[in-house]
Design goal:
295 residues, alpha/beta, Rossmann fold, 7-stranded mixed sheet, 12 helices
């Protein structure tokens, strides 16, 4: 199964070859994956070195000149370290571009807490007008990049090693209805879908699948809402989507719960799967957390 990061690079390189408006700006990470772009036209494919804030600033310069820039690096190095540049250089000037990250939330756990970023989506949602995409499979990465291509908006696309077994027919800006139930509504985000489905097996719940977090599909949530309990299963800090979902449910009397990465420093080392188990985000852990909320 092709990884999300590999698919993102392949899709961007195809767009780069087909459209002279596309520019790629990197900061050492994944340079080898974007070699087709560097070979095709090195004038608009740049590696600035380990300078993520400069990477974003250079990309904004491309945008000012009419290009559709794409930047890519490890999640905390752009979502947090270069957050000010994303806000000032892109959002405040109302420029469009695509930010693709890898390694969320703790795929690089063996590198220590400097490489953790479970707070990335929460940070990006502070930027007015930003689009936030969290695919759960490589096929969705391709569809979402093409669906938001050159829209003139700043778009953040989050990839990680964990994923679902197969892509769903996702559309940018839409929730996908995975299954219907009556007792409660569970919103599974990106790579949390398959494990959520396994965790609620046998429970009478509706499961909605979210890959576009901003703008959020309030219409589908309102139409498909089951029961008076909503649980959001998030691959980042628990509660990140609380304000968004609350706004979408304005006027509806529901109990809203969040299951995700605890808001604490993660001291564990090992694989992402091992940390998921430590944090209760594998199937048994999710079952233990979800069952009391939705029955």
């Amino acid at each position: 199964m092709i990884a999300m990061r590999a698919q993102a690079a392949d899709t961007v390189c195809e767009l780069f070859a087909a459209d002279e408006r596309v520019a790629v700006v990197l900061a050492e990470i994944s340079v080898e994956r974007f070699q087709p772009a560097f070979r095709h036209d090195p004038r608009r494919a740049l590696n600035v070195g380990i300078m993520e804030q400069t990477m974003v600033g250079v990309a904004a310069g491309f945008a000012l000149e009419g290009f559709h820039p794409v930047v890519h690096t490890i999640t905390p190095f752009v979502a947090e370290r270069a957050l000010e540049q994303l806000k000032l250089d892109f959002a405040n000037q109302e420029l469009g571009g695509l930010v693709i990250t890898v390694g969320a939330s703790y795929d690089y756990a063996a590198e220590g807490t400097t490489h953790h970023a479970p707070g990335d989506v929460q940070a990006l949602l502070t930027i007015p007008g930003v689009e936030v995409l969290v695919p759960g499979a490589a096929g969705e990465v391709d569809a979402l990049i093409r669906g938001t291509y050159a829209t003139g908006r700043l778009t953040y696309l989050r990839t990680q090693t964990a994923g679902n077994d197969r892509p769903r027919p996702v559309e940018q800006g839409r929730l996908h209805v995975e299954r219907h139930g009556r007792a409660a509504t569970v919103i599974a985000i990106g790579p949390m879908l398959d494990r959520t489905l396994a965790a609620v097996d046998g429970l009478d719940v509706t499961v909605l699948y979210a890959t576009t977090l901003a703008p959020f599909d309030a219409d589908t949530l309102a139409r498909e809402l089951a029961g008076d309990t909503v649980v959001v299963v998030e691959p980042f800090h628990a509660g990140t989507m609380a304000a968004t979902v609350s706004e979408a449910l304005a006027g509806r009397a529901v109990a809203l719960h969040a299951v995700g990465v605890p808001r604490a420093v993660i001291r564990s080392y090992g694989t992402a799967e091992e940390i998921d188990a430590d944090l209760g985000l594998d199937v048994p852990g999710l079952r233990e957390q979800l069952a009391p909320l939705v029955v």
